[in-house]
Amino acid sequence: MTPSRTVLVLLLASALARGEGGDAKPQSGGYAEIRVVDAGTGRGVPLVELETVNGLVFVTDNAGRVAFHEPGLMNREVFFTVRSHGYEAKKDGFGFAGARVTPKAGAVAEIKVTRRNVAERLCRLTGEGLYRDSVLLGHKPPLADPLNPGKVGGQDSVQAAEYKGKVLWFWGDTQRMDYPLGLFRMAGATTPLFDPKDAKTDPANGIAFDYFVDAKSGFTRAMMPLAKRPEGVVWVFAPVVVPDGDGRETLAAHYSRRKGLEGEFEQGIATFDDAKSVFVPAIELPLKETWRRPSGHPIPFEEAGKKWVLFGSPNPNVRVQATLAAVLDPTQYEAFTCLKPGGDAKTAEVETGPDGAPVWRWQKALPPLDSKEERELVKAGKIKPHHARFCPADAARPADRVVLHSGSVRWNEFRKRWVLVAGQIGGTSHLGEVWYAEADHPTGPFDRAVKVATHDRQTFYNVCHHAFLDRDGGRTIHFEGTYTNDFSGNPLKTPRYNYNQVLYRLDLDSPALRLVRATAAAPALEHIRPSKDGTHFVGATSGKRFVVWGVNYDHDGDGRLLEDYWDKEWDTVAADFKEIKEVGANVVRVHLQLGKFMEAADRPSEANLARLTKLVRLAEDTGLYLDVTGLACYHKKDVPAWYDALEEAGRWDVQERFWRAVAKACKDSPAIFCYDLMNEPVLAGDKKDNEWLAAPLGDKHFVQRITRDLAGRTREEVAKQWVKKLTTAVRAVDDRHMITVGVIPWAHVFKGAKPLFYAPGVGDPLDFVSVHFYPKKGDVAGSLAALKVYEIGKPLVVEEIFPLGCSIEEAGEFIDGSRTFCDGWVSFYWGKTIEENEKAGDIKGALVAKWLRYFKAHAAEMTAEPKK
Q: Which of 82, 161, 698, 707 is the right S-S partner for 89, CB 3.0 to 4.6 Å?
């Protein structure tokens, strides 16, 4: 927007009802409704600017609505340029992002925007006119006071604490609507505790703050009056709940009476007077004391039997024991640093261990290190980038380090890790970017971060994730920050939103966060694809050759299939994946049962698709790829009667729907190595077969017919039609990941047999060849010759191998002999470690343990540059 453009922010209620005391009331036939919605969810989007070509600007309220009444612009087509931080409107052929709308009184016009932020903007929490446009349009708002709770105009920097059965909220400087100078001694409010299972306490539409107000004016009152010391502003930081000497819950906080941002009159630690509902000084601290005091958003933390409170923003780098006496005693505070005594962050030396990594420690003499100071040490070469704890790498650009501004660290039950949400200093906006990272300890290291929210030429500072607002078992978290043009260099203020708190929510299961979820032991995965010449596998980004060294995870030691226990025994699955990684595998083949994923012929199971998504995330976290094999009917009792009764065409239609649903759930993840359409499909013989399932091996039907009657067709025609139908279904939703079919090696059974599913014209849509091979005892050469039949110019993977009919030595000889023309081998893991198999004390356990030891010992060699 150029300075010459006149930006008119229209206060429509006042303009249209000026002669009625300024009250904003809907007038019959007066307003047109323009609603901006998220194209993905249909939810109204707050903080969207609509600008006409002559510079009239309208901003959506919390419901995404604008109440529009421009006498000269009604009932005619009007173009609005659409701007919204982290959201985009579709551009036309000339590159204009906006929409044509014909405003009509009483009618609704909808504009769709696409969210580019990872986080979803929910609402403005503070200030005047939260649902202003919705009220003008006659809608019933979700808040009891949707217009001006506490008579607040704007509020800066939130602090919150759960205390004595309520949540206490505190804000810094607070604007009032009746004069330019507002409240500068902290505002406050209460709310009931939030129940994550109660939809009524979902903060998505706002939070009904019960403000502490002045009885006469109704405007929010001071939470730390210090009436006898009227000079300066008073800010309160880091409210923390700790027990006093009698074990009673006490609320303490750091306070600062200041001249402004730079100067300070006094500082100290205050406690909350429950009877008067104000903070009162408990001790005064020297003005030179910079860290032996509460700061940031406190974290209760227990370690080695001691209870601590961690302070810092965003990274906890100060601690004190969790008692009121300790909080009030500066000598009890400890700082986290890796510097040697003497000097400062610019001149001091870093304490390092034998591996060159910094040695971090808690101590009382030196001040703590923060993200900005650590970044200086990295730039000076005193700390290697990959050793940084507090300035994570940008997951999208690992060479770039993110210097964090204020934020918070919280334990997250869904991720079972500590999660960081913080602003950034000097990003694409000066203080407007928000980042997410994870670590196993609250002090880090936070290795990588993903940007989750952006604010173009605006500031969004003092970010705070409120753990008490977490929902869905911690999968959904909420954070807020102060939205303002201060410090941004942008002179334009967004009406009503400026200098107020805006709330976002973040789905921690979002695919966009997968680069953060990977740990140092499990580096971020890249998509795998066939090489340009189609003969082997490569990383899509690095171009580095990839060799499969995997395991089938088809059932556990008791014969249970994955879907039988993954809901109630998820920890078992997670432990198995960790163990699989530890034996050196890079691919896990999972077998999805059709009866568990299709509730009806036309209805996939949303519950099991969600569990599959969770499994994909586990693979990402563990650093494993998935070979997703589908349509399994291994346990006949689990095959739906309706499916068993279908004829060929109906059965194929169900299989098509299965693969559309599965591929849609998996399509965005780099952890998907491939889709295997069916385990060992076969066709009918010359005569019609009565059963869809072939004879079982033990209690499992691993082999399945795709037709029971050739009906005059050739075997190649049937196979071609089936492959085409199912690959087309996958490609309709996922054109990135590879497709294969794991087949029985008939060339190993019948001399001269040819591959059916990989015959010319049949297997063209398949990206690589998968064959299941169990070498014959005393005939390694013959087994290799049979495998050679499947070398057709595509990557070749032995998708099943185990010393079932030969010795471990012969199986190893077979693998080594096939390295010149194979691109991978997939063995088995049945839920028991090497040690657990050895302790079983039986022949099977001993065989499996010995084979797993072979598998682990050869992992590095087999996944290195192959002989092929």
A: 82
Contact indicator for 819, 801 with CB cutoff of 8 Å:
no
Residue 142 clears pLDDT 70, i.e. is over it: yes
Answer for the pair 79, 92: CB distance below 8 angstroms, yes or no: no
Residue 21 pLDDT more than 60? Answer: no
Q: Hunting for tokens 């009483």 — which residue is that? A: 106
pLDDT score recorded for residue 768: 98
> Do the beta carbons of residue 375 and residue 394 sit within 8 Å?
no
DSSP class of residue 810 equals: H
Residue holding tokens 């300070």? 264
**What's the angle, vertex CA 779, arms to CA 773 and CA 782, rounded to 5?**
70
Measured in whole angstroms, the distance separating CA 537 from the mean position of its chain's CA atoms is 28
Please determine, for residue 8, whether its predicted confidence score (pLDDT) is greater than 50: no
Look at strands 548-553 and 824-828 and give their pairing: parallel
C-alpha distances in Å from residue 699, one per residue of 256, 558, 561, 587, 696: 73, 12, 12, 26, 6
Q: Rounded to two decimals, what is the model's pTM?
A: 0.70
- Going by C-alpha positions, the residue among 422, 442, 464, 427 that lies closest to residue 159 is 464
Give the Cα separation of 221 and 174 in Å (integer): 10
What is the Rg, in whole angstroms, of the alpha carbon atoms belonging to the chain?
32
Q: Which helix (H) or strand (E) holds 195?
A: none
Neighbours of 390 (CB within 10 A): 29
Inter-residue contact 238 to 296 (CB < 8 Å): yes
Cβ atoms within 10 Å, residue 761: 10
Comparing C-alpha atoms, which of 783, 790, 771, 844 is closest to residue 813?
Answer: 783
pLDDT digits (tens, 9 = 90+) for 782-838: 999 999 999 999 999 999 999 998 999 999 999 999 999 999 999 999 999 999 999
Q: Residue 469's closest CA among 764, 169, 226?
A: 169
d(CA 727, CA 722): 9
Determine the Cα–Cα distance for residues 535 and 527; give it in Å rounded to an integer: 17
**Residue indicated by tokens 């860290």:** 291
**CB 738 within 8 Å of CB 673:** yes
DSSP state string for 312-329: BSSS--EEEESSHHHHT-
Could you tell me which of 120, 124, 142, 141 has the C-alpha nearest to residue 199? 142
3-state DSSP percent of the chain in helix, strand and coil, to 5: 20, 30, 45
Nearest of 237, 206, 183, 143 to residue 502 by alpha carbon: 206
Looking at every residue in the chain, the average pLDDT score rounds to 92
One-letter identity of residue 119: A
